[in-house]
């Protein structure tokens, strides 16, 4: 697979280099110069946050500038060296057969060996491509950080709503217990226990509110907003259907994971660098065009007739070739490029391992969380609700006390909060899976999630 990627990149390198060299250099990459990464974000607030972060995040802006800088290397390394102009003026004139040589102009142009400029351009193009892919990876990293914070915030908001419902219900039981105690049908102990439970729920709510403020400040910072800006409550989020075929996801990661593609581009650049280093053994060419000014002499100063080409200027072309005799440094350059290529191939293997590990870990989390949510929805939540309803009816008739009622309330509160946590963790695992494959994950029916 590695060799296939490298060959594809090398086959298109010349065309891509020609296209890049034919386009005038831009003043800088604009935020909208590339489409934003496709990602699972059905919530409008989340999409807005991601869009704002991609446009304003200072790390991404610095990375975009680095990508543009790497692109500007291509016309530099493919350009010819500047020609050299030498002016000469004779201090003492040199007499020749056709006149006095007074001065001249020589223009010298150094010429790399055939194909060297193209090789340099392909190396720079592959490295610029890798830099651009790593920039896209940084965008994906910012997105996954936003999603983790957003879905943690979604859990906190869900937990606060659950506590508010429990607080309202326990407040109703407290009123009922107080009325029963006032009529002599209940115990003061029941009222005290309900009040203690309400105080505990109020304390838990305060803790969640404090955590929400911290998550809101972090989310605002990630989105490029003021940390103290208000963050609206996150509505309940439906559980998405996710395609979990390992072979398909690993194939998606092989094609789309930005770090993997960047490593493949650097391997391509490394192979071309080895070829470029080998050209050091070949001579470098220097072409010179010389113009010599010849001053005509006075016929009276010359014995006999003047030659017919008297006073005609001289124009000559010369070609020089360097002699690459100091081969030790050239061999070292080839060895250096070879070792760098080996290192990049190992980095490509490491990038593939990281992709596979990220996909496998996220898949295990998704499968485990889905099973736990199914267990809650199919067994634990219905059982807790049924038990609580039966306990409430028994409490109304005085068959059970307040302790049994509170036990039922705690169980239902715990399973509801547990489900909210699992849903949030499922969405975070989905975000990590997208980060692992580098592209939006298909839904369970094969469409994009």
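-> sequence recovered:
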């Amino acid at each position: 697979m590695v060799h296939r990627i490298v060959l594809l990149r090398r086959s298109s390198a010349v065309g891509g280099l020609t296209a890049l060299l034919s386009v005038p250099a831009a003043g800088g990459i604009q935020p909208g110069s590339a489409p934003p990464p496709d990602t699972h974000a059905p919530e409008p607030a989340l999409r807005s946050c991601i869009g704002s972060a991609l446009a304003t995040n200072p790390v991404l802006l610095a990375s975009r500038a680095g990508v543009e800088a790497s692109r500007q290397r291509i016309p530099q390394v493919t350009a010819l060296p500047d020609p050299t102009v030498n002016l000469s003026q004779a201090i003492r004139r040199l007499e020749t057969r056709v006149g006095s040589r007074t001065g001249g102009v020589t223009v010298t142009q150094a010429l790399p060996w055939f194909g060297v400029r193209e090789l340099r351009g392909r190396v720079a193009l592959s490295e610029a491509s890798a830099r651009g892919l790593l920039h896209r990876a940084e965008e994906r990293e910012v997105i996954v950080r936003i999603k983790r914070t957003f879905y943690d915030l979604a859990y906190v908001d869900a937990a606060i709503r659950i506590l508010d419902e429990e607080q309202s219900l326990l407040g109703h039981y407290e009123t009922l217990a107080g009325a029963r105690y006032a009529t002599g049908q209940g115990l003061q102990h029941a009222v005290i226990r309900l009040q203690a439970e309400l105080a505990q729920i109020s304390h838990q709510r305060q803790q969640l509110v404090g955590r929400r403020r911290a998550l809101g400040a972090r989310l605002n910072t990630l989105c490029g907003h003021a940390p103290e800006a208000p963050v609206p409550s996150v509505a309940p989020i439906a559980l998405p259907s996710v395609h979990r075929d390992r072979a398909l996801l690993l194939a998606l990661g092989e094609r789309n994971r930005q770090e993997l593609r960047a490593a493949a581009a650097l391997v391509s650049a490394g192979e071309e660098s080895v070829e470029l280093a080998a050209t050091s053994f070949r001579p470098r060419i220097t072409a010179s065009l010389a113009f010599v000014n010849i001053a005509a002499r006075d016929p009276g100063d010359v014995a006999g007739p003047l030659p017919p080409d008297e006073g005609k200027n001289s124009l000559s072309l010369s070609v020089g070739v360097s002699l690459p005799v100091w081969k030790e440094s050239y061999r070292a350059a080839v060895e250096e490029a070879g070792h760098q290529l080996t290192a990049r191939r190992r980095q490509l293997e490491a990038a593939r391992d990281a992709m596979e590990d990220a996909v496998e870990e996220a898949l295990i989390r998704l499968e485990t969380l889905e099973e736990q949510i199914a267990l809650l929805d199919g067994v634990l939540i219905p059982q807790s609700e049924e038990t609580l309803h039966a306990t409430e009816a028994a409490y109304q008739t005085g068959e059970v006390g307040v302790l049994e009622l509170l036990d039922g309330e705690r169980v239902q509160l715990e399973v509801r909060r547990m489900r909210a946590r699992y849903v949030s963790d499922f969405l975070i695992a989905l975000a990590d899976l997208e980060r692992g494959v580098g592209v939006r994950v298909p839904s369970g029916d094969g469409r994009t999630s």
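Residues 359 and 436 are 5 Å apart (CA to CA).
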